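User: Before I run my own analysis I want an independent prediction to cross-check against. Here's the chain; please return only the structure tokens and, at the end, one sentence I can use as a sanity check.
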Amino acid sequence: MAKPPKSKPLLRDVDKPITSRPRKPRDPAQPNLLLDPMPARIEPCLALLKSKPPKGDDWVYEIKWDGYRLSVHVEPTSIRILTRGGHDWTHRFPAIQQAALWLPVGTAILDGEAVVLDEQGRPDFGLLQQSLGSRGGNKSSSDAVLFAFDLLYFDGHDLTRMDLSERRHVLEDLMEGFAGAIRLSEEIDADGDQLLASACEHGLEGIIAKRRSAPYRSGRTGDWIKVKCVQSDSFFVVGYEKSTAARGQIGSLLLAARKGDHLVYVGSVGTGFKERDALQLRNMMDKIARKTPALEYNGQRKAVVWLQPTLIAEIEYRAWTEDLKLRHPSYKGLREKQDNASVCEME
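Assistant: Structure tokens:
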């Protein structure tokens, strides 16, 4: 039987310490490792509305924040805060801008939602609007805080091709121990149905479900799902019904949704207005009045003032009626043009 060959030691002189080869001087002609250029803007990933939370191990949940979607660009010499529509609102969120300057990072793009919290710590869209001076205003809000839920770019590297779980890992490391006007939107390890019930019980808007294994893809791809406690959507204000008894002489607002290239009437809303809201609304609506409706209208309302469909209102409602009208609607506020809010589309 042949003898096995003798094994050779990995190091010739086993008693000597292990050392690496001497480092050679760097060749100036050799290129540096390429970094990803920082994009001027990334179209946001949007959540698809569903009636129930998705199931499965690939889904993770967060609270749905009721505010304005923002991306915060931390650049070498400045901070930029962009709305969903790509408008620069840096000057309108000074506290968030200052907090971004303190982040321990050279360059980054954070995706999140700016909110103003009420006394119970819940996001309040009306309070956010007041702090910004309502629609068309140009006030800055020192009360708004950003709940960051994604990290798209980090120190020269594009993270959008990474899975959500990997992006969140880097985001959580970045936000560890950080407090102030930028906060981490926590992922919640829970059953989706139970979390939704708890969110509704605490007066929150709803929850967001996100696919752990998905990269960051712009638009409504289905990687993110939103489930609301109370439904809410954006609608065009196409007219208002006069009332001598109501504040601002507004009895109700007439609302419309999109249907292809046309507008369709979806009912009216007469609740949720505060005195300040009604007066501001009346001032804006007086400037866009028109003689005829901007849509087909077969209703019987009297003393209607028709409007150009330029104002977009955020409306809460419980359900749709059989004739496709809003059930129990309530006015939440006007959306800013720069927010690029998508108006409800009828199938």
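Sanity check: The mean pLDDT is 87.
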